[in-house]
Amino acid sequence: MKLKPTDSELEVLQLLWEYGPLTVRSLNDKLNTHRRVGYTTTLKIMQIMTEKGLLIRNTEHRSHIYKPTLLPEEVQSSVLDHVIKTVFRGNRSTLILQALGNHSTSSEELEEIKALIKKMEEQ
């Protein structure tokens, strides 16, 4: 499945992955800790996401409860594939060099990267 969630949809997914299934009201409250978002805006985004198949809605209770249909890794992979193809013209090494060159990298992150490279070389 090729996904290109909008920034708002990614924000909703991140909160649902972090907190688990939520009502529109609960999710809207969490969004409002970062920026001001109206309840009806949150409701509309979640309805659209349900239509797209990004969320499922449990209607057994008075307040509907939403949860994501995808794992974070699935969305991350799809979004990253899109960025690699469109922004970096398929060149993964340019993406990696850009990511590492534009930000300070902790020693823990460098160790993780080294371990990944070693694992890939052994395959």
Descriptive notes:
The structure is a single chain. The protein is mainly alpha-helical and 123 residues long. The chain is 63% helix and 8% strand. The chain contains 6 helices and 3 strands; from the N terminus they run αβααββααα. Strands 1-3-2 form a 3-stranded antiparallel beta sheet. Helix 2 crosses helix 3 (39-52). The protein is elongated and about 55 Å long. It starts with 6 loop residues before the first helix and ends with a helix.
Which descriptors apply to this entry?
123 residues, mainly alpha, 3-stranded antiparallel beta sheet, 3 strands
Strand content: 5-15%
Mean pLDDT: 91
Summing up helix and strand content along with how strands pair, one would put the structural category as mainly alpha
Instruction: Report the sheet with the most strands, covering strand number, pairing sense and barrel closure.
Output: 3 strands, antiparallel
Dominant shape: elongated
Order of helices and strands: HEHHEEHHH
Poorly predicted tracts of residues: none
The end-to-end distance, rounded to whole angstroms, is 27 Å
Strands, total number: 3
Strand order of the largest sheet: 1-3-2
Question: What is the helix content?
Answer: 55-70%
Rg (C-alpha, Å)? 18 Å
- Number of helical regions: 6
